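Sharing a chain and its predicted structure for anyone who wants a worked example. Both blocks are below, sequence first, tokens second.
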Amino acid sequence: MGQVASSTDRKFEAMSQLTEGPQRAGAHGHGHTSIWWLAFGSLGVVYGDIGTSVLYSIKECFDPKHGMPLTEANVLGVCSLIIWAITFVVSINYIVFIMRADNNGEGGTMALLSLITPRFNQSGTTKRSTSVIIMMGLVGAALFAADGAITPAISVLSAVEGIAIAAPALSSGVIWITVAILVGLFLFQSGGTEKVAKFFAPAMLIWFTVIGLMGIPHILKHPGIFAAFNPVWGVKLIMNNGWHGFMILGSVVLVITGGEALYADMGHFGRSAIRMAWFPIVKPALILNYLGQAALILEKGTSVIKNPFYAMVEGWLVYPLVLIATIATVIASQALITGSFSLAQQAIQLGFSPRLTIKHTSGETKGQIYVPEVNHLLMVVCILLVFMFQSSSALAGAYGISVMGTMIITSSLMFLVARRRWDWSLWQAILLVIFFLVVEIPFFLANLPKIAHGGWFPIVMCIIVFTAMTTWKKGRSALAKRLQAKFYPIKDFVKRLGEGDIEVKRVKGTAVFMTPNPRMTPPALLHHVEHNQVLHEQVILLAIVTADVPVVPTKDILEVHSFGEGIYELIAHYGFMQTPKVGRILRIAKAQYGIVTDERDTTYYLGRDILLTDGPEKMWKWRKTLFAFLSRNSVSATAYFGIPANRVVELGMQVNL
């Protein structure tokens, strides 16, 4: 035990046999999986949110509170705005352009941030400019977190509201039925989505088929509704109705909610599969349903304004429609909840969040994870939202700001991608972003008056999440600065050990010390030597470094350095979508470098920082207190890195920030 191969740099040929384990579809390709099957699967994950927008979007657009007359011209105008919002924002912006900006197959705000910041650091961009870019990305991530809380509440609530139409006597129970479904949905998360996911795609295919077919009979009665494809009707509506016409954009934006999920979930299926599902299936079904609802309004007027979606069917057909709508909204909620889990994992790996519990729920897909802390928090927030707002119409006011804020930040960051990654000229990049923002900014501005009517919620939640992330990052930097004086090069430690300046007794076995600073002596090692005056025959200093890619392949994970005296440094490189486990790292070390460890005589030494908040660091007192609170409630390194709890020794150290 503890013997190393003749050269620590010689890798075993058996390495080719050691695999990463289950691969994520988007990170390293899709193997032999049919592109058609991936496109089919994307219906159940990627398109749930935007697919269920038909439940509440049209009724919000024609809500009498907008003060807009219900004329044929206005109906055509609203329908035209809907068609072209979907076309510009989703089809052109996201499907054609933004999905090209992938980080090894991964999408989303955090992936985009990790894609562009290294290029700026290399190009000599000022520290302040880089900080602004990072802040923009974090705001986008925080708004996405708010979106993840609102989506389950508004989606399930809008579906269950159909009960009030099918059975008016049960209308008083809508809130409690919604809460019961949400509780069941969140309790289900701990079991994982692997098995149930098999039903997601077929259910959503049925959903898109149903909503498309629902629109056709009403369109046939009023084929003139096809005039809405002419964008002039949308322009006329805004010009003829002035302020009321502009404000209608705040409701039209609801038809594109979920468009941001196309980019965030790209890693699961790949851009080709997502595009393949959008153009022949999803978009036609959505357009047919919106046209059908508009045609129904032309036919029956104000009598169907309260809920035109359910008014499209009559009699007993409402009951199965409520059922399938509820299933579809649960699926839509599932996608956003899973996205929140992925966002939390990325934030942890990129250093913007304390450690949380990460549980992988699938043996085949690494992207399927469960984060209990995030799940419980989302459940509480969603239930509070249902009780606070009481209806999907009231919640709609909270939706647009989070969605459009995320989209505007994504589009703005695309300027940097075009310049730094695609090498576009300045004027080409500017034109691209102007093309995006000229549509998105008016939608955002039209939602600002809703701040007093629910729009405050995503802003408040964004501030809370953003503050927590930046406080953790700043606190960790301040802590590292305070600990810096306690670090000195490991080579100096080994030299003193070899020359006898450090008197210790060497004992059998292996000691593993986690260190945040490669090539430096961990304070825990110094404390151990100073107080216990013993050292194991083999000492491993383990540093885990997060790379700017989603997944690091097994062959590139480990970097090993030998310092003599039985002391080795292992630097493990992991992607921001991976969760490092110490046991697996040691197995790779054995396979690649011949570093042998026996779990029975391996001891893990961890440092535990006891934080005080009255030190000299330039942080506000409340931020120091928040950082200390987050640190105390962070998941232990033992649990997070999968270290055997019965082999751990913790060495405490008091630090005054």
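Comments welcome. The chain has a mean pLDDT of 84.
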